[in-house]
Design a protein that fits this description.
single chain, 9-stranded antiparallel sheet, 9 strands
C-alpha cells in the first residue's frame, strides 16, 4: 500500500499542471518527430533486497547512469502539447567496475512549456517493474535538453534516478 501511495505522487503532481494542456477539438496533423540522444545521471537505490545485494558486493546504493533515449512524438496539438513514446536504455555502476543494465519504455505527455510526465514498464537486473517519470525539456534553437526524475517502486526496494542529456532531431 505504501508503494502505491508513493507511486501516485508523480500522477498527482502532474494533475496540478493540467492547465498547461488546453482543450482542443482536433489534433493538428503533423508527422511523427523522432528525437534521440545521450543520457547521463545517477540512481539512488533505496533500502531493500536490491540494496542489500549491492552492499554484499561492495557496490554503493548511488550509481552513475549512462545511456541513450529514443523518443517519438506521435501527435502535437495546436497549443504545442504533444504525446510521446520513449525508450531509455541505461548502463549503471560503471564507476564501481560493474554493469547494471536497465531499459524503460514510457508513454507520456509533454505540455507546451516543456513539463512532461510518463510511465511504463522497466526491466533491470532487479527484475521487472513500473517506472514513473516527470521532468522538463528545455529547447534552444533545434536542440532539446531534457531533465527527468524517475521512480521505480518494487517489492524489493525503490529506485530514484535523475537523468539529463540532449536530443537532436533525427531526419
Amino acid at each position: 500500500m505504501k508503494i502505491l501511495k508513493i507511486s501516485l505522487i508523480p500522477v498527482l503532481l502532474f494533475l496540478n499542471y493540467t492547465h498547461l494542456f488546453s482543450q482542443v477539438e482536433d489534433a493538428v496533423i503533423i508527422p511523427p518527430i523522432n528525437l534521440n540522444g545521450p543520457r547521463v545521471g545517477f540512481t539512488y537505490i533505496g533500502p531493500g533486497d536490491v540494496a542489500d545485494r549491492l552492499n554484499e558486493n561492495d557496490i554503493s546504493q548511488f550509481i552513475s547512469q549512462f545511456g541513450w533515449q529514443f523518443e517519438t512524438r506521435f501527435f502535437t496539438l495546436d497549443n504545442g502539447s504533444c504525446g510521446l513514446v520513449e525508450g531509455v536504455v541505461l548502463l549503471g555502476g560503471l564507476e564501481q567496475n560493474t554493469i547494471l543494465p536497465s531499459a524503460s519504455f514510457l508513454i507520456g505527455l509533454r505540455g507546451q512549456k516543456g513539463i512532461e510526465f510518463g510511465f511504463g514498464p522497466n526491466l533491470s537486473v532487479a527484475g521487472a517493474s513500473f517506472v514513473f517519470a516527470v521532468g522538463i525539456t528545455l529547447k534552444t534553437q533545434n536542440i532539446f535538453f531534457p531533465i527527468n526524475l524517475a521512480m521505480v517502486p518494487s517489492k524489493d526496494g525503490y529506485r530514484f534516478s535523475l537523468l539529463f542529456g540532449f536530443n537532436a532531431r533525427k531526419k
